[in-house]
Structures are given as structure tokens and as C-alpha cells.
Amino acid sequence: MSMRLPKYLKRPIIDTDKTKKVRSILKTKCLNTVCDNARCPNKNECYTKNTATFLIMGNNCTRNCKYCNITCQKPEPLDLNEPKHIAEAVKALGLKYTVITSVTRDDLDDGGARHFANCIKEIRKICPDTKIEILTPDFKGDKKALNTIIEAKPDVFNHNIEAVKEIFNIVRPQGNYELSLNVLKYIKEIGNITTKSGFMVGLGETNEQIKNTLKDLHDNLCDIVTIGQYIQPSKKHFPVSKYYTPEEFKALEVFADDAKIKHYQIGPLVRSSYRAAELF
């Protein structure tokens, strides 16, 4: 039997001129957002603030993570005009900070690294003062792909660990915990770029496992960490084992301090790109 969603995890639906403007710009430019595809609970708050997290390289993912609402089907061909349209949307929204993420594209020879780099390049062309955060797949740890990202010089490189080590392989069977840590370390050591990662709680982890994951992120040179509550997108997805209380999230902040994490955002509704500009 599924647990009832606590009141503090429910967000009201807001429809204002601002949210309509954001949706209109996205529709005009034929762009996707992770806000919609992953059913983010903060979507309306972000749209009200005139921002959204762009989802590039289509709606279909080549991996089937058990917590994620994004479809795992045959991926669409890359839209080579997408980087330009992303840049135009950033300008139209007046964004001083933008976050770009993607589905995982294991079918592409570079995992889509060049496409990420092209998005950064196009934004810098017409919005040179906009800070750019990218939230990427692991690119299978391919150094050539990671070097393509480093050369594009995003302001923040985010790659989510998503779950503690002991649960990782259960919910991310096509990923690799150590490889994800190595990706973060490589970007920091070779690119000297601000690195960020995040994970969910409520998947069945213990406090000790949370502490160890925070230590692993610190030891692999991760600058910023986000932790939020896992919310099951549908009955076919991985079940929630527990809803952490706001007080328990406060305790997780102590864990982050003890692990010497430099910057963090921890709370029930925190997601990897939630209030990213403020955190940066």
C-alpha cells in the first residue's frame, strides 16, 4: 500500500501571466523542460520566477532508472537547431542564470557532449553575461566527451549521484556509482570547474549510508550538494520507503557539515536545479 503524501510535499498549481509567458516561449521554440517531463513539484514556482530547466536531446532516454518519469524508448534524432533555440529562449526569458540538462543518449558516440557544448556556445553568443549550469549524464566516463564539456567552460558542472551506494545499482541498473564519482573528480581536476551533485532520500537508505555518500562526494571534489525527498511518479516506479520530516532534513544538514561539504541545499522539495542561481 502506498503512503499518503505529506502536506509539506504538496505544491499549489499557480497560473499567472508569468507562467503563461514561460510556457509560450518554450512552445514557440519547440523546447522541452525537465520540469514537465520529470513532473517536478517546483515547476510552478520556477515558472513564476520566469525560469525553467531546459531538457535537451529529446524526450526519450536510453536508460530506464526506476525512479524517473522520463520515457525509456527509442531516442529521437538530434535537433541541430536546438542549441540556437535554447539561446533564444534564454534571451527571451531574460535569464541571468540558466540550467540545461538532458536525457541520457548512449546511442550517440559522445553521449551528446558536443550538443551540450553547442548549447553553451550559442548562449554565450547572444547572452554573454548569463551563467550556465549543465546537468549531464555520465557519458560512460569517456574522457574525450568530458574534455568536450571542459573546453566549453560551463560555470557549473552538475552530475547527480541520485542514490546512496548501496541502493544505486537497484534504482540505476545501467549506471555505476564509482564511475559517477570519477566523472565529478575528473571535471574538477582537469577543468577546474565548479562541480555539483545531488541525491534523493526515501529509497530505503540508512543515515550511515547518507553520511558515506556525502563523504564520497567530498572526497571526489564535489563543491555543491543537493538532497531532496524522493516522490514516486507513478505506481509502476520504485516505491517510497519513507517520507523524511522537515526536522530530519535539518539533521541531514549536520551530516553535510560533518562531511565538510562546502555548499549544500537540503530539504523536502529540493531538486538538483531548484533555486540553482541562489545556491551558486
Protein described:
This protein is of the alpha/beta class and 280 residues long. The protein has a domain at 7-197: Alpha-Beta Barrel (TIM Barrel). Helices cover 39% and strands 14% of the residues. It contains 11 helices and 8 strands. The protein has an 8-stranded mixed beta sheet with strand order 1-2-3-4-5-6-7-8. Strand 4, helix 6 (143-152) and strand 5 form a beta-alpha-beta unit. The longest helix has 15 residues, at 177-191. The N and C termini lie far apart (40 Å). The model is unreliable at 34-40 (pLDDT under 50).
Compile the SSE list and pairings.
Layout: H1 17-28, E1 32-33, H2 34-37, H3 43-48, E2 53-56, H4 82-93, E3 97-102, H5 113-126, E4 131-135, H6 143-152, E5 156-158, H7 165-171, H8 177-191, E6 194-201, H9 207-219, E7 224-229, H10 246-258, E8 263-266, H11 276-279
Parallel strand pairs: 2-3, 3-4, 4-5, 5-6, 6-7, 7-8
Antiparallel strand pairs: 1-2
Helix pairs in contact: 4-5, 5-6, 6-8, 9-10
Question: What are the defining features of this structure?
Answer:
single chain, alpha/beta, TIM Barrel, 8-stranded mixed β-sheet, 11 helices
In short:
The chain is of the alpha/beta class.
Give the helix/strand class: alpha/beta
Radius of gyration (CA) equals 18 Å
Spatial ordering of strands, largest sheet: 1-2-3-4-5-6-7-8
What percentage of the residues does DSSP assign to strands (E)?
Answer: 5-15%
